[in-house]
Design brief:
The structure is a homodimer of 185-residue chains. In chain A, a hairpin with a 7-residue loop joins strand 4 and strand 5. The longest helix of chain A is centred in the first third of the chain and has 19 residues. In chain A, strands 1-7-6-5-4-3-2 form a 7-stranded antiparallel sheet. With 185 residues, chain A is an alpha+beta fold. Chain A is globular. At the A-B interface, helix 1, strand 2, strand 3 and strand 5 of A face helix 1, strand 2, strand 3 and strand 5 of B.
Chain lengths: 185, 185
């Protein structure tokens, strides 16, 4: 019985390390953000389509989808406290859209990846930072702190510079924890 | 050392059971499908918007989003074999959409849940079945086998009656495993 439990313990440790090995915040030696191989297994927050924050923008005829994923540990912490813990990682995955795919006649479905961006809360690097993954790159380059994404998220993020206002499963928890700012219009 | 491993084994077993307790296929006593409390932590397959398979349908002015989630164990098995194992569960979560939310000016974002449907592969119940969750119900009622969803999925599902043609991360794996049917148009 003891031996069985010992073996189970070891097996489960290995399994946990294996399944979690890509879920942690990881940088390359030159400070780029490593794209976790399993980010598509992370918690999905929401998908928008053709979103724009610029009132002068021309409506897109072929609007992209924007999927947002968050690291599972950060998601569970947020659902308890309404706040993002240190080492939170969000990924924005932008995909093309098409309409007449297979038997679909109207509306739009998702196709190939167009762009990926990471948004990381890391106190060891001075707080939130954005990283861009170009053309299928597996490592993301830091956006300079003067890039407009920083000031826009700072000003308009409902919760701690993140756009919780667009993530329907998080809004109520953030509001209950008095960590939700009304924005826009 | 032995004792530490034993305790670790027990702790990890408990943790695994806890985290997995809602991830398994579960029916109520009267045969309804129980909605897992954590289905939003399952693997996201894709989101469409305003999809319709009826060429006579009027385009929707306020099209709903359709998010699809699959049980993590079934997803991992599919990524290895290109096939759905027994006890696979997929959930379709339909959400309303809005445009001018917060600072968004164009395109659409997701809002409240409009409907939920489950699609379950269970050999103990004769194969695939559909369940509908009405008005926030936590248990889904079986759609009769004569409902059009069965014949449509049978005829048009790219892989084993599921619409893998709309799930971009699965298509290549299904094709490589010769488990992908071209459909439509």
């Amino acid at each position: 019985m003891l031996l069985v439990l010992v073996l189970l313990g070891v097996a489960l440790l290995v399994a946990q390390q294996k399944s979690g090995k890509n879920s942690r915040l990881e940088y390359s030696k030159d400070g780029k953000l490593v794209l976790p191989k399993d980010y598509r297994e992370w918690v999905f927050l929401s998908a928008g389509i053709g979103m724009t924050y610029n009132s002068d923008a021309t409506p897109k005829t072929n609007p992209p989808f924007e999927n947002v994923f968050v690291s599972p540990a950060a998601y569970r912490e947020f659902m308890k406290t309404g706040a993002w813990p240190d080492k939170t990682v969000l990924f924005l995955e932008v995909r093309g859209s098409e309409s007449r795919v297979s038997i679909n006649k109207d509306g739009r479905v998702q196709t190939k990846i167009v762009a990926i961006e990471g948004h990381v809360k890391d106190s060891a690097k001075g707080g939130w930072a954005f990283y861009g993954f170009k053309d299928g790159a597996q490592e993301g380059t830091l956006f300079p702190k003067t890039a407009p994404c920083y000031s826009c998220h700072q000003e308009n993020g409902a919760t701690d510079t993140t756009f919780v206002q667009f993530y329907p499963t998080l809004i109520e928890t953030a509001q209950k924890n008095h960590n939700y700012k009304e924005t826009g219009h």
